[in-house]
């Protein structure tokens, strides 16, 4: 008998469970297409050359100590992180930036801040979305209702913009929050057009809905970090009816993917306010939340990101590293598409070429995904999401053949 006998049994997290199942799968042809982790052509987690250089310099620095960071985080990280998101678009705005435990921590902190102070009745999440959005909000405040807004249209393999806007216009309430993937949407690989972003901004402004940008893949949509910040920057620079936009919003930024620093947990939360007083209050409250939850942020990964972004030579190398990753993903998309269409695989596959970022939806049902795993040892998420990062020249034909075998019946 234990006090904990009454604790509900929680099923394993789907993504981690699949990664573990794949790890222990002894089949020589197994292919892991589940995680959003960039792998190189040998299916190994890539250490970016820019990161390697910055890391070597840090490790060689005998004066480096392990003093605690200031409460908002490592200052050089925060200035670089903010510049990477907003560049010079913040005229007349006030922003609070705080280092977080990667993108997950940034999502968590903004959920905590809103839950205790803006008290949204509902948080709107795209259908589909990163599974952890729901977990984070449920964990922070089960009293906040979670609702889906329409996003992916399985017929067109694109976004149903009309349904998205009309649902929110008709059903969202003032004070609600909405999660928006800033670029390279996970899991679908499709992003709103500039016109749709403006429609979303207008709708948020008119209805008084608080936008939260989740920026986990900056650099993976187009290969260029500035282009990939365009939706966020639009929210700061747009004007409505000749006046500057009144929107206040947050950005949850992750450096896991675009620096390959998955285990270092580097991220930042930026909250854009319209008054200096509002920003100061946000800062105070974020410090309080951070003190209670983590006291201070880890510095090693933050120092690496800051070193790269503050050094013009390393930054140029990093931009090249982004292009290298995107180039390989584009090549794998083409090879998978060719492999599927050469076999006349039933289904529509053109979107594999036009989707962006790490992911594409295959349209495979959970049953077919299970067959793919059990018979062919090819691992996808149950919703049919394929992570292009796990494809290599050595396995892409096998994956195409396996998908063909599973869907041909
Ligand atoms: C959409 C999205 N947001 C946030 C994250 C957070 O990742 P991390 O906490 O590693 O930065 C992920 C990771 O997969 C993601 O896909």
TrEMBL record:
From which residue to which does the signal peptide run?
Answer: none
Biological process (GO), any one = aspartate biosynthetic process
For whether the record's keyword set contains Transferase, the answer is: yes
Q: Which cofactor does it need?
A: pyridoxal 5'-phosphate
In terms of InterPro entries, this protein maps to: Aminotransferase_I/II_large (IPR004839), Asp_trans (IPR000796), PyrdxlP-dep_Trfase (IPR015424), PyrdxlP-dep_Trfase_major (IPR015421), PyrdxlP-dep_Trfase_small (IPR015422)
Q: Which GO terms describe its molecular function?
A: L-aspartate:2-oxoglutarate aminotransferase activity; pyridoxal phosphate binding
Q: Which UniProt keywords apply?
A: Aminotransferase, Pyridoxal phosphate, Transferase
* Domain spans labelled Aminotransferase class I/classII large: 30-403
List the GO terms this entry assigns under cellular component, sorted alphabetically.
Answer: cytosol
Do you know which Gene3D superfamilies this protein is assigned to? Aspartate Aminotransferase, domain 1, Type I PLP-dependent aspartate aminotransferase-like (Major domain)
Key word Transferase present: yes
Q: How does it assemble?
A: Homodimer.
Q: Which family does it belong to?
A: Belongs to the class-I pyridoxal-phosphate-dependent aminotransferase family.
Q: What is this protein called?
A: Pyridoxal phosphate-dependent transferase
């Amino acid at each position: 008998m234990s006090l904990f006998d009454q604790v509900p049994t929680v099923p394993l997290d789907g993504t981690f469970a699949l990664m573990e199942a794949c790890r222990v799968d002894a089949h020589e042809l197994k292919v892991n297409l589940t995680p959003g982790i960039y792998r190189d052509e040998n299916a190994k987690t890539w250490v970016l050359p820019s990161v390697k250089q910055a890391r070597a310099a840090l490790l060689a620095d005998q004066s480096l100590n392990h003093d605690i960071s200031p409460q908002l985080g490592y200052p050089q990280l925060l200035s670089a992180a903010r510049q990477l998101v907003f560049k010079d678009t913040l005229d007349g705005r006030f922003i609070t930036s705080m280092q977080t435990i990667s993108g997950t921590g940034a999502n968590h902190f903004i959920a905590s801040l809103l839950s205790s102070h803006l008290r949204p009745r509902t948080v709107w999440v795209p259908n589909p979305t990163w599974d952890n959005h729901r977990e984070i909000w449920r964990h922070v405040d089960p009293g906040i209702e979670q609702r889906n807004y329409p996003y992916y249209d399985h017929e067109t393999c694109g976004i149903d913009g009309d349904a998205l806007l009309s649902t929110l216009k008709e059903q969202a309430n003032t004070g609600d929050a909405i999660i928006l993937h800033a670029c390279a949407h996970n899991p679908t690989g499709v992003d709103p057009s500039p016109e749709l972003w403006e429609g979303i901004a207008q709708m948020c402004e008119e209805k008084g809905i608080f936008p939260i940008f989740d920026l986990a893949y900056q650099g993976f949509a187009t290969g260029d970090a500035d282009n990939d910040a365009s939706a966020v920057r639009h929210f700061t620079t747009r004007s409505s009816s000749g006046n500057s936009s009144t929107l206040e919003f947050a950005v949850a930024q992750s450096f896991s993917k675009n620096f390959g620093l998955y285990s270092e947990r580097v991220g930042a939360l930026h909250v854009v306010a319209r008054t200096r007083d509002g920003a100061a209050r946000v800062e105070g409250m974020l410090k309080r939340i951070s003190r209670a939850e983590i006291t201070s942020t880890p510095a090693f990964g933050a120092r690496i990101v800051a070193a790269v972004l503050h050094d013009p030579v390393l930054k140029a190398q990093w931009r090249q590293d982004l292009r290298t990753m995107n180039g390989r993903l584009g090549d794998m998309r083409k090879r998978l598409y060719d492999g599927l269409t050469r076999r006349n695989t039933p289904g529509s596959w053109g979107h594999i070429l036009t989707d962006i970022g790490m992911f594409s939806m295959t349209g495979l049902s959970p049953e077919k995904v299970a067959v793919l795993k059990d018979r062919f040892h090819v691992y996808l998420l149950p919703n049919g999401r394929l992570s292009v990062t796990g494809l290599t020249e050595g396995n892409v034909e096998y994956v195409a053949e396996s998908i063909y075998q599973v869907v041909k019946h």
